[in-house]
Every structure is written in C-alpha cells, then in structure tokens.
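From the shared-data thread, chain only:
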Amino acid sequence: MTAAWIAILVVLAVPAVGACAYLLLATLLSAKLRPPAGSSRSLRFDVIIPAHNEVSIIQRSVTSARRVDWPADRFNVMVVADNCTDATAAVARAAGAEVIERFNLEQRGKGYALDFAFRKSREKGWSDAVVVIDADAEVSANLLEAFAARIEKGAQAVQAHYGVLNPMTSWRTRLITIAKAAVHIVRSRARERLRVSCGIRGNGWCLTHQMLLRVPYRAFSLTEDLEYGIDLGLAGCRVEYADEAHSDADMVSGEQAAGKQRQRWEDGRFQLIRSKSLPLLAAAVRQRSRICLDLALDLLVLPLSYVALNVVLFVLAAALAAHWNHSLQYWLWIALACTASLVLYVMRGWQLSGVGAQGLLDLGRAPGFLIWKIMLMLRRGKAGEWVRTDREKS
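Structure, as tokens:
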C-alpha cells in the first residue's frame, strides 16, 4: 500500500513541483526593469490593426494608435479589414488609417490577416518594422519609442505589456487582470532578466522586417501569437520585453462570451503543447539554447487554474498519505511548499495588477473560477477560424 501511495504522490508531485518552482523563480525576479536610453527617433513603423467586423470600436483603436509620441512622417496606421461584412473599413479610413481589405472565406483567422498585412508592408518597402495591436486596444504614447530604443540596440522582436483596459467592469475582469499581471508582468520581467524570450502575446508587439525575412510568418493556429513566438525562439531570436510601454485591450465580463474566448485560448495552447514541446526541448539540447528551454518550460507550465488544481490534489493526497503512514509526512511539506510558492506568485500578480482591495476580495471567487475553467477544458472548439469575441456593450 505504501508503494501505491508513493506512486500517486510522485505523479502529482512532478508537475506541481516543476510548475511552482518555475513560478517562484519568476516571482523572485519580478522587480521593475530599467528602460533603455532614448532612441534617435528615426525608425519607421507600420502599425497594423487586424480587424474582423469591429465597426463599433475600430475608431477608438485607430485614434489611440495615431496619438503615439513619434514623428508623424515615420509611422503609418494600417487596418486589415479581414472578411468584414460591416463598415469597419469605412470607419477606419475616416479615422485616418490606411485600410487594406482581405476576402478569403477558406483561409480565415487572425494569422492569415497578419500574414497578408506583413506582405503588403514588405512590398511597400517603407517601414523598418511592423507593430501589431488589437482592434479593441489602446496604447501608451511611448509605445514606438520603447520599441525603437531596443531595436537600435540590436533587438529584432519586442513585446510591450499586454494589459486590461476595463479591469473594474466585473469580478471576472479583475481576476483576469490579476492573472494577466502574473503572466505578462511577473513572468516577462523574470524572462527578460534571464535574457530569454518573453514570447509574443498577440497584442502590442513589434518585429523588424529583417526578422520577418529570416523567419517568415506562418502562424495560423488558434494561438497564432504563441506559435510565432516559438518559431522565433527556434530560430534563435529572443523577444525582448518592454516593461515601460503597454497596449491594453477590453476583456469580456459575461460568462458566455468569456467562456468562448477562454475555450479558444485553451484549445490552442494544448494543440501547441502537443506539437511544439518536443521540438523545443530537442532544440534546447541540440543547440544548447536556453531560449528554447525556457519556451518549452513556459509552454509546459499550464494555465494557472490547472496548476492550482494540481497543487490542491497534491495537498489532499499528501495529507491522506501522511495520516495513513507518518513516514510519508515529508510529502505533505513538499505539497505545502508548492502551495506557498503558488500563493506568492498570485499575490505578486495582484500587487502589480492595480485592482486594489476589491481584486483581493475577488480572489475569494477563485475556487468557482477554477471549476468554470475546468469545465471549459472538457469542451472542444473549432480550430482555424477567426471567431470574433463579443464586445462589451457601453
């Protein structure tokens, strides 16, 4: 019976200890980063906004992008109206954006829209780099300066902080804000300190045309951002993190819309775990690449809710085992250490999220949120199609 208990505990402990050790290290390395010295303000950017039927919000995004603090003759805002059946293109033009329209009912998805825009930008031969922001995003005024300062020092890919535009809309958006702060700030700061890649987050990222030629954009999965960040890592490119700049987007607060959005993210991530984990680990060994090793570890550390479930089961199993046989009590101490590491990580995310005491109280809803997320895991979404997220009604 003791051997059976040990087998169960090992199965639960390996992923729990691995994930919590990774998250604890990130927490310890999450102090604020020092931005680089200013740029020469000479680089040219195509700021690309992919949009599918976003007539209600595209003007806001274009206006925000056009207000960045950068010489007006050195950046261009380009909206990709992808398979739109509404007035997205017309509204974007009226707001001052260059608009390119794409119609292809077989190749549907944000990845295809970005590939189309990148090729158009390259054909013009005007810009040094492309910047991607979401159609529901608002950006900080220093966004292009943050990218340019790093590119002039040798960076080829840069990711700004991807934050939440409407954190106080509901308890759900506050919990998402805490989770994003943990992933997008805590882990990205740590990865930047370790000189590995923070990856691509999908909103608020920049890539030079030189790197696009070296690593052509071929990311068409449900999580095209994560996929392309991995492709860059496999090519030896480190995505640098711009801690001082941000691109914030709306998060849905309704359960149904949030469920659809989360399901697509979860499905896409699990697809990448199956297809990219082994290539990354093989490249880490073959090339002695810490960038690929970190990307593999980051991919294998499941979303926070799954890590939390793993730790809870580990604690319960360790407590039962210790009660049955006192010689197994050390397993309980290991499980409690995992719990403490996870709590520190979450609290650091809360501290950096800016949601204050209300967000701390909302963490009491975490068990219910965990159950909701697990239910989503049991469903499967339709891959490869750009399913527009339902926007919040104002």
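The domain at 1-394 is CATH 3.90.550.10 (Spore Coat Polysaccharide Biosynthesis Protein SpsA; Chain A).
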